[in-house]
# Entry
Amino acid sequence: MPTVSVKWQKELFPAVEIDTSQPPLVFKCQLYDLTGVPPERQKIMVKGGLLKDDADWSTVGVKEGQKLMMMGTADEIVKAPEKGPVFVEDLPEEEQVVAVGHTAGLYNLGNTCYMNSTLQCLHSVPELKSVLLKYPHSGRSNELDQSSHLLTMATRDLFSELDRNFKPVAPMHFLTVLRKKYPQFGQMHNGVYMQQDAEECWTQLLYTLSQSLKAPDSRDNPETLKALFGVDLVSRVHCAESGEETSESESVYSLKCHISHEVNHLHEGLKHGLKSELEKVSPSLGRSAIYLKESRINDLPRYLTVQFVRFFWKRESNQKAKILRKVDYPLELDVYDFCSDELRKKLDAPRQILREEESKKFGLKTSEKNSNSMENDVKVLQTEGSSNASGEPSSAATQEGVPSEKRVHLSGIYELVSVLTHKGRSADSGHYVAWVKQENGKWIQYDDDNPIPQREDDITKLSGGGDWHMAYICMYKARVLSI
# Structure
């Protein structure tokens, strides 16, 4: 990588490295970090004219130690006029973010839309940002490898930068650390970085964060990845041929929506995803046999992630192919039917109370029987909240035995808060985009560095069936009852 000096106005930047394996836009993003001049305003003089965003470095002919001249004006904070209407553009940048209602986009650094869309979806989780802010700068070398520590810090810093900015951010440092931790995201073809799978990026990043942000009592601690995203499954594994039956338990960070000619809706796909066939050796038969694995949800997170299994390996063409079938998904998802009997019992009372509250909100009368039942449910939940797992009074209990702090109870009902879509025929190509619900209830489409407001109706049209953007990952936020 050649090192050059860059002259801009009265300043000289003596040692700027150019990664010639990436397009000049990435170099411009580096200069944006140094000078504050956005890439679209930069005019960099090279042999033959101005440096273009998509130029080929081999033809540009930049040499080690070469001095480049850059022209362009940096972003400035414009004072709002004292009188007359105030426009968003006239506000300080930190106020622009609040006024517009969404945070910054992310520059595409060369086929990095898979990463940008993943980051925008996860950035929308305030609880995740909160726990990341508390993550220490110094590494815990005895417990965590350095690359995981660096990736966690890079995530924390990038999320903070997105919150501070209104204009696009260049995630260069995060990308560098991600590729160091997971080299597959640095794969190249004909000198260009390859498109990668957003689901793999999502999974690897969450895995790293789950290792870095570990804490004691992870399920009871709301500030852990397990509590935020982890789904506990209990499975019955049965062999019809031998009659053998065992039970298994596991934790996953997403549910799978399997797609077949029978699946038209997310609910049906989830049902298929919780059933699978596997072949293994049967002790009683002394040979391989087919087992049916049927899973149920035994514990739920605050944020439920669902992946549409749209990609598969096509042997004829020796490449990944995509299932384009339309699969509708709801703005509100109820997973009660997929839960174990044990979990359903925990969900029954909160669900009943929420139903009664909704009835009152719409002016519907409730029977005296239901009203009494609701009061009993509240008392039961308050009693549960006033003691911990060992039965000892919790710190939230007052002398009268009534919790002084409200406890959160899950209902099994979730509201859609983000959708990651893919447009194209193959996972190795195409384009990824994030569609994220803001705190004010409005939706924003994050197409790399270009945030675009959307209507709620537009979000439900991302279900597939053609060449338009179609849902690949959906993230739902739990509707909770606080008592």
In short: The radius of gyration is 26 Å. The longest strand covers residues 408-423. The domain at 102-212 is CATH 3.90.70.10 (Cathepsin B; Chain A). The chain has a mean pLDDT of 84.
